[in-house]
Amino acid sequence: MQIFHFNVIYPNKIIPDLEGSAFSDHADAQREAFRSLCSIVANDVEKGRRIEVRQIDVLAPDGSKLHSVTLAELITAVVPFDDDLFFSEVAEQLTRTGELDA
To answer: Residue 49: how many CB atoms within 10 A of its CB?
Structure first.
């Protein structure tokens, strides 16, 4: 088992994961980061709050960033769109304008 850290990134702050969690490999940690981001977003939606979280960074024990799971990635994975090309263009425009930081 390896220890991975999950820093939660907001537009104006970073919430560092000082303790970390043990996972068998980077892929398991990456999946947990995706589940965690889904949970944060779902909680905000359920409570009627604006979605502020932008991404979760997966860090190795030495602090190096291994992967980021972004809000844009989550939206493209969970929101069904009949026209993927259209949604990709919308997500790209939002990312460029800073509405969704990738």
So the answer is: 9
96 by DSSP, 3-state: which? helix
Q: What is the pLDDT along the chain (102 residues), one digit of tens a residue?
A: 999 999 999 999 999 999 999 999 999 999 999 999 999 999 998 898 989 999 999 999 888 999 999 988 888 777 666 666 666 676 666 666 555 444
Confirm whether pTM is higher than 0.85: no
Which is it for the CA torsion 27, 9, 41, 82, positive or negative? negative
Cβ(58)–Cβ(33) below 8 Å: yes
DSSP string, 20-78: -EEESSHHHHHHHHHHHHHHHHHHHHHTT------EEEEE-TTS-EEEEEEHHHHHHHH
